[in-house]
Amino acid sequence: MSKGYFRFDSNVNSVGGCVASRLPDLKNSVTSHDLCSCLKGTSKIGQEAVPNLTEFASSLKADANNVQQFLYTRRKSSLNLISRKKSTNNNRKPTMPLKLYSVSDSPPTLAVRMALKYLDIDHELVDIDFANGEHLKEDYIEKNPQGEVPLLDDDGFVLSESVAIIQYLAEKYKKDDTFYPEDAQERAVVNHRLAFNLSTLYKTVVEYMLLPTFYAYPRTELNLKKLNHSLKTLEEILNRQDKAYVAGDSVTIADLPIVMSLVCLEAMSFDLSEYPRIASWYLNFKDSCGELWEIANKGLEELTGFAQSPPDLSHLEHPIHPTDRSVLEDE
Ligand SMILES: N[C@@H](CCC(=O)N[C@@H](CS)C(=O)NCC(=O)O)C(=O)O
């Protein structure tokens, strides 16, 4: 029973007990607010106007059916309100097609595109010419000071960082209760997986796979060690959790960026045999989320091509990444 139920003064406390004894099946659902309204509304007796407890208690007994009816009605109407709110949310669709500034093989962009697909949201892809450094030019930097894709424009609301974008989309254009659960603990698990990927798994994937593929970085044993360590951690997380998806029994937004981390590894034929749990989760995602996988798979094809034949970006004056591979050859 809600503790608030007995927060009244001693008179009402006893009356509360009386109501509770008459309505045992409601004990767990009646709030103090319900009771107060009940006292004022049904019995027409305010908290201060209880002249005689015995008299009041007997009047309440006489009214017990009304009280029960009243509480049921109140509860039902508040439940209706909640479900109305949810269904309004379900039907929300953007009034204008969203714009997603993207690069076709960019893992974070592809994760956002999978979320858009799952949520069935109309959108326009605005291709950024990555090879020619369009994302580093003034026009784009004005939109996104990070100089990165993806970038979302939802009718003037502009947002970067793929995880923030996915969370925003799943929240604003909610389709069901499972993709980004509202329960605090279930959502915390989803957020944990997202944070783990961003801070650990994808970071080590970037350092071992993506940076040496696109820029003039060596592929080092140390970075391989770090990558294996984060894979081992994910393997353990999945083993302990023992569920089909990374954050539970159904696909959530957390699966998408983690799938993209694995796509990067598959593109370089990384051997997952030491990580059977990750391998089976990844395979299951491909099988069970075919429409989403189709999007990721396009990225896989492109990334595989780049892994086999790394692009030459030496014409770019990149603010942070070295692009001249000849420096590496000299080392
Ligand atoms: N933290 C960012 C990472 C985005 C990111 O790394 N994007 C890459 C493309 S895959 C990028 O735009 N890099 C800019 C560059 O290399 O100059 C996110 O998840 O949105």
Please give a quick description of this structure:
Residues 310-331 are annotated as: Disordered. One of its GO terms (molecular function) is glutathione transferase activity. The protein has 13 helices and four strands.
Protein model, in words:
The termini are far apart. With 331 residues, the protein is mainly alpha-helical. It folds into 3 domains: 3-90, no CATH class; 98-172, 3-Layer(aba) Sandwich (Glutaredoxin); 184-330, Glutathione S-transferase Yfyf (Class Pi), Chain A, domain 2, CATH 1.20.1050. Strands 2-1-3-4 form a 4-stranded mixed beta sheet, with helices on one face. Helix 1 runs parallel beside helix 3, helix 5 crosses helix 10 and helix 5 (107-119) packs antiparallel against helix 12 (290-308). The longest helix has 31 residues, at 184-214. Mean pLDDT is 82; it is low at 1-54 and 70-88. The protein has helices at 10-22, 32-41, 53-62, 64-90, 107-119, 138-143, 162-172, 184-214, 221-241, 255-267, 276-288, 290-308, 326-330, and strands at residues 98-102, 123-127, 151-154, 157-160. Helix content is 58%, strand content 5%. The chain has 13 helices and 4 strands. Bound molecules: glutathione. Glutathione (GSH) binds at residues 103, 106-108, 135, 147-150, 161-162. Residues 103, 106-108, 135, 147-150, 161-162 line the site of glutathione. InterPro entries: Glutathione-S-Trfase_C-like, Glutathione_S-Trfase, Glutathione_S-Trfase_N, GST_C. Residues 183-306 form the GST C-terminal domain. This is Glutathione S-transferase.
